[in-house]
């Protein structure tokens, strides 16, 4: 059997209706890792809140034609705006009422909300969500890195919506 590396990406039959929304992050590295995974998943829009963030130059070069990175001051107005646009606000956060990602069905039109690496999402931000999902952890520390968890959630969304 002969294998050829780097075959072309799969074609989406319709644009993804998934937006990645980040609470103020501490690290441009995490944002760059999120952007790289989002690009692989066919996501075209990332909204980063807080201080202006930049992508790693290599990631920025690769994503320049496919991903729009929007920088906004604060998360709450963004969430309210996305709700008006018809997005389901799904936070990636461990809460007392969060759903296990293994049993969660993503709505096609989803805004995936990512918390800060250390502090997660605030109580006020959590109150604006439609629901929260979490990724089970079987060891320590008690949660995955923000970028790693986002990659897992993006993959699960794409598994559920492979055509776009």
From TrEMBL:
* UniProt-recorded Gene Ontology molecular function terms: RNA binding; tRNA (guanine(18)-2'-O)-methyltransferase activity
**This protein's UniProt keywords:** Methyltransferase, Transferase
Q: What class of enzyme is it?
A: transferase
Cross-referenced Pfam families: SpoU_methylase (PF00588)
In this chain the tRNA/rRNA methyltransferase SpoU type domain maps to: 18-155
Superkingdom assignment: Bacteria
Under CDD domains, the record lists: SpoU-like_TRM3-like
Under Enzyme Commission nomenclature, its number is 2.1.1.34
Look up the record and give one Gene Ontology term from the biological process aspect.
tRNA methylation
Record's signal peptide:
none
SUPFAM superfamilies cross-referenced by the UniProt entry: alpha/beta knot
PANTHER family hit by this protein: METHYLTRANSFERASE TARBP1-RELATED, RNA METHYLTRANSFERASE
What is the protein's given name?
Answer: tRNA (Guanosine(18)-2'-O)-methyltransferase
Species of provenance: Botrimarina mediterranea
Gene name on record?
Answer: trmH
């Amino acid at each position: 059997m002969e294998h050829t590396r780097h075959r072309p990406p799969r074609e989406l039959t319709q644009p993804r209706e998934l937006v990645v929304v980040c609470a103020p992050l501490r690290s441009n590295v995490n944002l760059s890792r999120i952007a790289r995974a989002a690009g692989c998943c066919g996501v075209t829009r990332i909204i980063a809140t807080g201080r202006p963030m930049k992508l790693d130059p290599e990631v920025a070069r690769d994503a320049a034609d496919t991903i729009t990175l929007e920088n906004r001051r604060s998360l709450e107005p963004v969430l309210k705006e996305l709700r008006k646009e018809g997005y389901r606000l799904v936070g990636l956060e461990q809460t007392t009422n969060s759903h296990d990602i293994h049993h969660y069905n993503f709505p096609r039109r989803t805004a995936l909300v990512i918390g800060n690496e250390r502090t997660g999402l605030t109580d006020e931000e959590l109150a604006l969500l439609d629901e929260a999902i979490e990724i089970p952890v079987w060891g320590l520390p008690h949660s995955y890195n923000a970028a790693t968890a986002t990659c897992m959630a993006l993959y699960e969304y794409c598994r559920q919506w492979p055509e776009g």
